Structures are given as structure tokens and as C-alpha cells.
């Protein structure tokens, strides 16, 4: 079942499962007497068609003695990283941006109507990108899991007092508001097919992600630095488009989320900066390693049960609308090279100097490749794709 089934809506043949006299629930292996009165599963109720493992398996690539680096940085992390979190009392909450369900029914309905009026003129293609961003946020359990695979910084108990674990839990708690707010806003707009969105989220969390970080916190923090800035750029651009499209509240929603992402980017980039200070060659090699692998977006395994190329198609729309583009990728790389002062880094091993040359010369190469790809795309007939998230309407890629 998906949440939207319990909130009214379409497709009564898939009505919420309620316990009926003929339904018996039992724990343990099914017995011959066990009967479920379930409707036949739709074609989409299969395991994600997307391969779960997408790279050669490489794990625990950080030499075990380097765990000490992270142990020795605990005091530093408490002093410089944890303060970048916002106290809960000072944090915004989704409720502040949404119609007030505690107001009188009339007032609440008016607020919902206003929301729907504001979103009425926003184009379908904008919703494709916003839904993709929301789904990316909603797969948050995967990201917390991913960070907790990193040796030396993982949360060893689930409530570990280590500053690394404290950061990860509180970061997750801050991020949790992003998906909640976007999801509720999108639901109330009525512009998107919540059932398909919910299925995509379920597929995505089931599929996981494979960023190639190998349980290695050097790689993990390079990845999160890049990734947080990518989400900052993307939410910033949807904020601008929402404003231009006539919804200043949605613009504020996306802008507020973007500000969180910026703060998170700052924290992760600060950690890499520190690693470059205490272990310049190790950190430089990690940056090059992640850039060679290319930073894959966290939702790269998304699937809605219909379109096996859903992520590719969503990314193409984001690229065309200018919400997140290959140019942004190169910009982020250049920004981080500048922030980490990689060009001026000294005291490197020969191998790390090679990594430095590779990383510092990469952005122009990415831009050139993209120019060629754009050229090829211009010569091709524009084609469009149906997105289940917007009731199978077609959007030009
Ligand atoms: Fe987020
Ligand atoms: Fe984030």
C-alpha cells in the first residue's frame, strides 16, 4: 500500500487493505490455512528493475591504521563541525510553510485553495524536476545508512556519543524535514500523481545507492561535500523557477532547503579541508578517486515500476531547465578546488601530485565534453518522454 491510498484518491481496485473476516494475519512461515484477500499485484509491483550493484565491489579501502586520524580529530569535530548544526528550537519545521490544519475548516480550505492557485501555472516539466528532488530527499534512510558504512566515523551503537555519530544523526534529522515539506506541498498542489511518487520512493529506498565510497571516510566526505553543494544548487534553481512561475511560498520552501544544504556542504567541506591539512596526500588521492569515478547522484537507482531509464530522463529535464547541469558539475568542482586550495597544495607524494594535476585540470575537460554532447543533441530531433509522476504527460527532454 502507499500512503496516498489512505488519503482518498483514485483506483478503488487497490483500496487500502483492511482486515476482513476472511483475512487472517499470522506470524512465522505461511501455513496452508493462511489466506490474504489481496488484489492482484499490478505489473509495477516487482523488485526494482535497476541493478542493485553497479560497480566492482571494493570495501574497507582505508588502511586500518588511518582510523586513528578520525579518532584524533574528535575534539576538533566537536569544536568546528557540530556547531554547524542548528538547535532544534531554532530550526524551521515543515508545518510553518503549510496550510494550518488547526485553523477553522473554512480557513484551512482557503489556504489549500491558495496553494493550489499558486501552483496552477507552474509548468509540468518543473514538477518533474521538483518531484525528482523530493524523491531524492525522501530516500534519506539510504544516506544515513551510507554514512554509517564509513570506517572510523560510523555510529557504532545507534546512539553513540562520538561527535561523528552525533553529526550524522543530527544531520539526518535536519535533512528529514526536506522530504517531508516537499512531499506535503506537492500532495496539496494536486499537480502530481502521489501514488507513482510513493512507489518510486519505495523502489528507491529498496534499491539503495552505490556512490563508490568503499567504507572509506576520506571518499565519503569528498562525496558528501560535492553532493550537498549539488543539492544546494538544485534547490536554489527550483526556488528561482517557482518565484518566476508565480509561487513565492514554494520559492521560499526551496530556498530554505537550499540554505540547509549550504550549511551541510560547509560542514563536509570543512572536514575534507582538515583531512588535507593532516594527511594531504591521502586526502588528495581520495578527491581524485571520487572524481575519476564521477560523483553519482544519490537517487541514481530511482525507478517507478515503468521507466527503467527514469533517472536518466529526470536528469535530462533538470539539465534542459537549468536546474542541475553538467556546467553546474564543473562549477562545483572548480568551487571545491578553490575552497580546498588544491592548486597550491604542497608536500605531496609523487602519486598525490599526479592526482592533483588530474583534479585541477578536470573542469575544463568536463565543459569541453559537455559542449560536444550539446552539439550532438542540437542535431538530433527533440524527443519527449512520459513521466508517471505527472499522470503520464509528456515532457521534452
Ligand atoms: Fe536535503
Ligand atoms: Fe543535503
Automatic annotation (TrEMBL):
Residues 1-36 are annotated as: Disordered. Fe cation 1 binds at residues 137, 175, 178, 261. Pathway: Lipid metabolism; fatty acid metabolism. Its main location: plastid. Fe cation 2 binds at residues 175, 228, 261, 264. GO terms for molecular function: metal ion binding; stearoyl-[ACP] desaturase activity. Keywords: Chloroplast, Fatty acid biosynthesis, Fatty acid metabolism, Iron, Lipid biosynthesis, Lipid metabolism, Metal-binding, Oxidoreductase, Plastid, Transit peptide. Its EC number is 1.14.19.-. Binds 2 iron ions per subunit. InterPro entries: FADS-2_CS, Fatty_acid_desaturase-2, Ferritin-like_SF, RNR-like. GO terms for cellular component: chloroplast stroma. Pfam families: FA_desaturase_2. Its cofactor is Fe cation; Fe(2+). It is found in: Plastid, Chloroplast. Coiled coil: none annotated. Introduction of a cis double bond between carbons of the acyl chain. Belongs to the fatty acid desaturase type 2 family. Homodimer. PANTHER family: ACYL- ACYL-CARRIER-PROTEIN DESATURASE-RELATED, STEAROYL-[ACYL-CARRIER-PROTEIN] 9-DESATURASE 6, CHLOROPLASTIC. This is Acyl-[acyl-carrier-protein] desaturase. It comes from Morus notabilis. The lineage of its organism: Eukaryota, Viridiplantae, Streptophyta, Embryophyta, Tracheophyta.
Amino acid at each position: 500500500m502507499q500512503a496516498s491510498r489512505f488519503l482518498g484518491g483514485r483506483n478503488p481496485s487497490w483500496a487500502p487493505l483492511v482486515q476482513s473476516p476472511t483475512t487472517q494475519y499470522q506470524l512465522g512461515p505461511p501455513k496452508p490455512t493462511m489466506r490474504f484477500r489481496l488484489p492482484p499485484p499490478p505489473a509495477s509491483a516487482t523488485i526494482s528493475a535497476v541493478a542493485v550493484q553497479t560497480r566492482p565491489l571494493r570495501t574497507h579501502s582505508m588502511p586500518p591504521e588511518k582510523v586513528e586520524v578520525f579518532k584524533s580529530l574528535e575534539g576538533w569535530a566537536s569544536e568546528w563541525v557540530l556547531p554547524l548544526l542548528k538547535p532544534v528550537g531554532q530550526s524551521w519545521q515543515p508545518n510553518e510553510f503549510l496550510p494550518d490544519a488547526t485553523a477553522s475548516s473554512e480557513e484551512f480550505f482557503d489556504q489549500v485553495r491558495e496553494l493550489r492557485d499558486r501552483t496552477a501555472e507552474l509548468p509540468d516539466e518543473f514538477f518533474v524536476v521538483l518531484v525528482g528532488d523530493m524523491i531524492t530527499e525522501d530516500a534519506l534512510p539510504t544516506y544515513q545508512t551510507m554514512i554509517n558504512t564509513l570506517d572510523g566515523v560510523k555510529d557504532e551503537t545507534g546512539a553513540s556519543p562520538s561527535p561523528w555519530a552525533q553529526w550524522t544523526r543530527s544531520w539526518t534529522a535536519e535533512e528529514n524535514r526536506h522530504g517531508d515539506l516537499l512531499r506535503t506541498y506537492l500532495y496539496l498542489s494536486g499537480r502530481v500523481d502521489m501514488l507513482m511518487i510513493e512507489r518510486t520512493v519505495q523502489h528507491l529506498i529498496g534499491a539503495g545507492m552505490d556512490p563508490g565510497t568503499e567504507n572509506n571516510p576520506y571518499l565519503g566526505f569528498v562525496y558528501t561535500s560535492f553532493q550537498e553543494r549539488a543539492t544546494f544548487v538544485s534547490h536554489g534553481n527550483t526556488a528561482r523557477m517557482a518565484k518566476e512561475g508565480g509561487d513565492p511560498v514554494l520559492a521560499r520552501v526551496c530556498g530554505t532547503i537550499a540554505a540547509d544544504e549550504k550549511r551541510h556542504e560547509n560542514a563536509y567541506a570543512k572536514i575534507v579541508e582538515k583531512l588535507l591539512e593532516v594527511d594531504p596526500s591521502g586526502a588528495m588521492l581520495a578527491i581524485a578517486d571520487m572524481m575519476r569515478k564521477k560523483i553519482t547522484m544519490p537517487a541514481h537507482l530511482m525507478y517507478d515500476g515503468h521507466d527503467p531509464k527514469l533517472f536518466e530522463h529526470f536528469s535530462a529535464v533538470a539539465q534542459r531547465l537549468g536546474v542541475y547541469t553538467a556546467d553546474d558539475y564543473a562549477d562545483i568542482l572548480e568551487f571545491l578546488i578553490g575552497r580546498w586550495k588544491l592548486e597550491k597544495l604542497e608536500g605531496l607524494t609523487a602519486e598525490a601530485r599526479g592526482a592533483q594535476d588530474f583534479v585541477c585540470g578536470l573542469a575544463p575537460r568536463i565543459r569541453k565534453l559537455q559542449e560536444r554532447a550539446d552539439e550532438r543533441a542540437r542535431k538530433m530531433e527533440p524527443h519527449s518522454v512520459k513521466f508517471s509522476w505527472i499522470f503520464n504527460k509528456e515532457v521534452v527532454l
